[in-house]
Amino acid sequence: MVCATLLLAVAACGVRGPAPAAPTGSPESGGTLRVAGSGDVDHLDPSSSYTVVAYNLARTWTRQLVSYPASKDFKTATTPVPDVAEALPKVSGDGRTYTFTIRRGVLWNTTPARQVVAEDFVRGLKRLANPVQPSGGISYFTQTIDGMQEFFKAFQQAPKTAAGISAFMQHNEIRGVRAIDPRTLEIRLTAPASDFLNIMALTFASPAPVEYERYVPDGPEFRQHTISLGPYRIEQYAAGRSILLVRNPSWKQEADPLRHQHVDQIRITLGQDSTDVVQQQLEAGTSDLSWDLPVPTSAIQRLTGDPNFHIYKGSSLSPFLSFNLQSPNNNRALANLKVRQAINFAVNKVAITRIYGGSRLNTMLDGAIPPGSSGYDPAVRPYATQGGTGDPARCRSMLAEARVSNLTLQFPYRNSGNHPKVAQSIAANLTKCGIATKLIATSSDDFYGRYLSSVAKSREGKWDIGAPGWLPDWYGNNGRSIVVPLFDGTNYAEGSTNYGDYNNPEVNALIHEALTAKTGETAAKLLREANKKIMADAPIVPLASQNVPTFHSRRVMNAIYSPLSQQFDYTQLWLVS
Amino acid sequence: MSLIEASSEAEHTPGITPAVRGKGPWQLAWERLQRDRAAMVSLAVICVIVLLAVFAPVFAAVTGHGPQDQFPETGLTPEGLPVGPGSGFWLGADSLGRDLFVRLLYGARVSLLVGVLSTLLATVFGVVTGMLAGFYGGWVDGVLARLLDVVLSFPYLLVAIVLVAALGAGVPLMILVIAFFSFAAMARVVRGQTMAYKEREFVEAARSLGASKLRTMFVDLLPNLVAPVTVLASLLIPTAIVFEATLSFLGLGVDPRTPSWGAILADSTDYYRVAPGLLIFPALLLLITTLAFNLLGDGIRDALDPRSDRLLSRK
C-alpha cells in the first residue's frame, strides 16, 4: 500500500526489505501519518499562532530565518541554527545590528514557484502588528526591534480590512528592519539582546508572501489560501474538523537543513475529546500520534517499559501558587512577607507532584525559575521542607510570630483537568496551618480575565491566591519569556501575567541588565541573582515543572521530540508497515 | 404481629366476626405494606443507609480518616494513583488520597439531605399550587396551569447548570433548584385530584354548611390527597438524589472538598481502569439507594390503594 502511493516520488521503494523494527533503520518514504486529537489550532496564520499544536503544524509548512534542529539532546534542540538564512547572522560590534543572508533555493509554493526574499520577512514582521489579529507575541518584537513599538501603535489605527492593511504596510516601514537586497535582511535593535535569535526562531517570525496582502490576517479566506515554503503544504483545512497536509512539490531537501519529507501525507482528525479513546487508538494502531491530548495519567504505570512510550523533560512553572500582593483582605496579610513565607513552608509539594502523576512526570520546584530555563539554580530553595512534604508546624509558628490569625483566603481555581485537585490539596495544607480558604470554581477564561489578570478585581481582593501555570515560549536563554512576564514589576497593567503585582526595583534592574547583556551566559548569571532575590520576597510558591509523557503507534520511526511544540516533529519521522 | 395474625384469621374464616377494634386506613395500609417483601427490604436498606450516614463520624474516628483529610503519602502510589481497598483504607482511597469509605458515608448525608429536603419543599409548593389551581379553576387555574407547563417544558439540566454557574454552588441552592423542577409534577397530580374531588358530595356538604374555601380546601380536601402525594413524594426522593449526583458529576455541585457521590463518580472517570472501586462503590450505593426508594414508593402506592391491579394480581 505504502509503496503503491509512492511510485512517482521514491524510486528505491521497491528494493527495500521488510521494515526494520529498531528506530535506527534507514528512512522509508511514503504513507499517511494519522494524527488524532481534540481541538483546532488557535490561529493558522503564523503571525498569530500561539499554541504548541499550531507550532507543530507550522513546522511542516513554514520556516524562519533561524530555527531549532530536531535533536534528542535538550540543549541542541533549544539552540537556534540557520534555516532560511544561509548562516547565523552577522552581528555588529555594538550587538545591535543583525544581518541575515537568505539561502538560495528556498521557494514559495506558488505557480510558478519563486524564491523567498528579504522583503517577505519584512512583510512577515510588519504583519505581526496588524490591527485585526495582532500577534500574541508582539511584545518580544516591540521590546527589541528599533521602531517596532511606533509601527505597532500606528498600525492599530489602520482600517481593519485587507486593503487597508495592505496599504498601511506598503506606505509604512519599521525603522529597524530593512531589505538591503533580495537576499539580505538587516534588523537593528534598540539595545543588544542575547536572546534575539530565539525571538527570530519563533513561528511568529515566519516570512509572508505578497499574496497574503489579499486577505485579512488569519481570516477564513487566509486559512484557505496558505502558501507553503516547508516540506508540506496545507491541502485541506476544515475548521475544527480536519487538516490534510501533502508534500510540497516546490520544496527541496538541499535547501532545508532541518526538515525532511518522509511521509506522503499528514491527516489530522479533530473532535475527539477523550484522552482514553485516543490512547486506545494509538495502541491499536488506528492512529499514529496524538495531536493535543496527553497520555492519560492512569495509563502511565501500565505503559512503563513500552518502547513507544517516552517521558520528556519539560521546563515550566506549572502550576505555581501566586499571591495577590494587592489584596485588601485580612488586613492586607498577603503584603506581609512573613505570611507568604509561612505559606511557602506549608505546602506539601509531594502531593502536587503525585496529582500530576508522580516524580517521573514532573519535577518539584523550589525556585522561581524551572530547570531548562535561563537563571535556574538548584541551590535556591529557601523554603524547602523535609522531603518536600510541607511543614505546617513551622507555618503556624511563623504566622504566630507575625501576629496574624484567622486568615480566610479567596482561592479561585479552574474547573478542569487537575486544577480542582491542586486547589483542594493546597487548601488542605493551609487548613493544617490554620488558614481557611474559600474555593471558587471558574472557567479557564474567567480564571485569568476576571480574577488573576484583572487589575480592578485584584485590587478589590476577589482573589488572594491562585494556581496558574506558565510555559515559556522558548528554552535556554529565555529570561524574556519567563522572568519578565512573571516578575518584572515595571509592566504591571491590565492583562498582566505578573498576577500578584510583585514589584522589587532591585529585581527589575537585574532583569533589565540581563535582557541587554551581550551573551546568554551573562544573562543567565544575572537571572540567577534575580531568582535568589525573587524567592527571598516569596511572591509565589513554586510547585512543579511538568514533563511530557508521549506515545506513538508502532509504525512511527525516528520520533524526535520537540520541546518547543511538545510533540514529535512531523518532518523527521517515517512510517513502517 | 398480633394484628397480622388477627387479620389473616379474619380472612380465613369469613363467617365469624372476631371481636377486634376497627382499623384506620393508615393501619390497614401499613399491614398491606408489611406483606410486600420488596418494600420491606427496601425500607430496611434505607434505614441502614440512614444509620450509616448518621454514624459517619464514628467510622471517621475508627479509621482515623476525616472526610476531607488527604493522605498523599499513604493513600496514593508514588505515581499518584489511588491505593486499592486494604487495611488502611477499607474501600481504597480517592485521587487525592482521601478515604473512599468515609467519603461515601458523608456523601450519603449530602444525598439524603438533598433528596429529602428538596422533596419536602417540592411537595409543599406542589400541593399548595395544585390545590389552588384545581379548587378555584377559572383564571387562577389558567395562570397556574400555564406556569406549570412552562416549568415542565424547561430543559431542567441546562437551566440548573446556568443557575449554579451564575449563583455559585452550594447545598441550599441545589435543594432549591431541584425542588423548583420537581414541584410541577406534584402540582399537576394534586390539581387533577382536587378537580375530581371538588364535585363530590362531601365538598358540597361542607360548602352548604358554610365552610370557608380555605377550610374546605385544607380540612376536607387535603386528607383525601395524602395518598397520591405520599406516593409521588416517595418517588421524587430518588429522582432528587440522582439529580444531585448529576450536578455534582458535572462539577456544579457543592464545594469540591465536600464529599458527594456524584463528585466521587466524576473523579473516577480518570481512574476507573486502575482503581475500579472509585467507580463501583459510589455507583452501587447510588443504585441501591434509588432502587430502594423506588421500590418502597411502589409498595406505598399499592398499600394505600387496595384497588390497585397489581396488588390484586399478587394475591
Tell me about the largest β-sheet of chain A.
Answer: 5 strands, mixed
Largest sheet report of chain B: none
Tally of individual helices of chain A = 20
Given the C-alpha coordinates, what overall shape of chain A results? globular
Q: Percentage of helical residues of chain A?
A: 25-40%
From the alpha carbons, calculate the radius of gyration of chain B and give it in angstroms. Answer: 24 Å
- How many angstroms does the end-to-end distance of chain A come to? 9 Å
CATH-defined topology of the largest domain in chain A:
D-Maltodextrin-Binding Protein, domain 2
Structural class of chain B: mainly alpha
How big a fraction of the residues of chain B is strand? under 5%
Whole-angstrom Rg of chain A: 25 Å
What does this structure look like?
The complex is a heterodimer of chains A (577) and B (315). Chain A folds into two domains: 15-272 and 549-575, D-Maltodextrin-Binding Protein, domain 2; 320-546, Roll (Dipeptide-binding Protein, domain 3). With 577 residues, chain A is an alpha+beta fold. In chain A, the strands form ten sheets. Chain A has a five-stranded mixed beta sheet, with helices on one face. Mean pLDDT of chain A is 92; it is low at 1-23. Chain B has one domain (29-314): MetI-like fold, CATH 1.10.3720.10. Helices cover 72% and strands 0% of the residues of chain B. Chain B has helices spanning 2-12, 25-35, 37-54, 56-63, 100-136, 138-153, 156-167, 171-198, 201-208, 213-249, 261-268, 277-304, 309-314. In chain B, helix 5 (100-136) runs antiparallel to helix 10. At the A-B interface, helix 10, helix 13, helix 15 and strand 18 of A face loops of B.
